[in-house]
Amino acid sequence: MKTIRIKRIYDEPAEDDGSRILVDRIWPRGVSKEKANLDEWNKDIAPSTELRKWFDHKEERFEEFTLKYRNELKEKEEQLNELRKIANSEPISLLYAAKSPILNNAIVLKDVLEKGL
Hints:
By secondary structure, this protein is α/β, with parallel strands linked by helices. Helix content is about 40%, strand content about 15%. It has one domain. Strand 2 (about 20), helix 1 (about 35) and strand 3 form a beta-alpha-beta unit. Helix 3 (about 60-75) packs across helix 5.
């Protein structure tokens, strides 16, 4: 597998980003589609609306969020395999909109893609 990076959608695109894939269910505020420079917007791989609202980016909930999101991803094997297929041929950047670089769904997704469920 090639490199899988996580990156905030608000950061400038870089030459070494590879395939840029937004992994949030909601389009990020203040980002135009042109500025996002996406190859794909994969809403289906994002946490469910209910889980996203429950988590609310609260640090004390991240551990439980991780467990619940990993559980949701068990039902997304087709989408996971598609992302793995891309990652096997080129680097990918999983883009997220959350403010925290360590408390977001992209970190969990990257781990699942690299290590499995």
